[in-house]
Write a structure and sequence with these properties.
Radius of gyration: 27 Å
Largest sheet: 6 strands, mixed
Shape: extended
Number of strands: 6
Helix content: 40-55%
Number of helices: 11
Number of domains: 2
Distance between the termini: 85 Å
Structural class: alpha/beta
Order of helices and strands: HHHEHEEHEEHEHHHHH
Strand order of the largest sheet: 1-2-3-4-6-5
Oligomer: single chain
Length: 313
């Protein structure tokens, strides 16, 4: 009897938001980090997104601390990086999950990349035992990968990449190659990814399918890949501890409230804009009627403006 009590007290208490759910949703920061804090999964994801094959593939990574990048993160930007890693070939990669588009989110993309570039330069300098010579300004390659749960580009493509190009070369439309391969920004737009499970052909397809749909799935998809089996296992609700589930639930509720507030504000803004437009049309009509010597009462009847508003025109 005592054993039954102990087993009952040790059972996982599922927060309401996860009841009936098989997986936690990797589109939320905390779940995203749980998924990719496994080195094998992160390497698999990066090779798929960067389309690396054979000898070019990433074979090992080191996780970097998410705070105090380049020694002054707190003084420059609030918040934390999601995942930062350094490959065996000394490339620095930042992977972020972004739920909402805001006024300065592209500035954030540039800022995070710049901070990581400074960190890469600092690390490289620290490793040098001799004078740098003509490599004094060398910086290791930096890649920023942004998984966006919103549409940010005007095309239908779900994978976009920014690099540094010459305007003159673009205008001539010849030999359009990046000025440098030292930095790149990759954007993965989940709303534009519309493939069904039987249409998944690449590793990138499978990862984007997982990221977009896992939070709503009722069964484990058959990917025929043991690493995806591991990925779905890491996301299972029943594999999380109590503290993790409570933290996830709190962050999801908070984000949902923020999303609702933004949606409401947008709707109210549109409504206010429509009303302002109607009022301006009414005032313009009233001005024209005043020129034609129409009575205040008649103008009020046809424009909906009060007599007081008309007298102010």
């Amino acid at each position: 009897m005592e054993t039954d009590k102990n087993n009952s007290s040790n059972q996982l208490q599922i927060p309401e938001i996860f009841k009936g759910k098989l997986f936690i949703d990797p589109r939320y920061d905390e779940a995203f980090k749980i998924l990719f804090n496994d080195k094998k999964l992160l390497i698999h994801f990066l090779n798929g997104i960067l389309k690396l094959e054979n000898e070019t593939q990433i074979t090992d990574i080191d996780y970097l601390p998410q705070e105090n990048i380049a020694g002054f993160t707190d003084a420059v930007v609030s918040g934390r990086f999601d995942i930062i890693a350094r490959t065996q070939s000394e490339e620095y990669i930042n992977i972020e999950i972004q739920q909402q588009k805001h006024a300065f989110w592209k500035d954030r993309v540039l800022l995070y990349n710049a901070l990581l570039m400074l960190q890469a330069k600092k690390d490289w300098n620290d490793k040098q035992k001799t004078k740098h010579g003509n490599k004094s300004h060398y910086v290791p390659r930096v890649v920023s990968i942004w998984v966006c749960d919103f549409k940010q580009g005007s095309t239908s493509h779900f994978h976009d990449e920014w690099m540094l190009y010459s305007k003159n070369e673009i205008e001539k439309r010849v030999n359009i190659l990046p000025v440098t391969n030292g930095l790149s920004y990759i954007f993965l737009e989940l709303p534009k990814f519309r493939k069904h499970i039987d249409e998944l052909t690449t590793i990138e397809d499978k990862w984007l399918y997982l990221l977009k749909t896992a939070g709503d799935l009722r069964s484990v998809p058959k990917m025929n890949d043991e690493l995806f089996d591991l990925a779905y296992t890491r996301l299972r609700v029943d594999k999380q501890n109590q503290v993790t589930l409570l933290k996830l639930a709190e962050s999801m509720v908070t984000q949902a409230e923020i999303n609702d507030c933004k949606t409401l504000a947008l709707q109210e803004g549109r409504q206010e804009g429509r009303e302002a437009g109607r009022n301006e049309k009414a005032r313009e009509m009233a001005r024209e009627m005043l020129k034609d010597k129409a009575s205040i009462r008649t103008i009020s009847k046809y424009t909906g403006l009060s007599e007081e508003e008309i007298l102010k025109l």
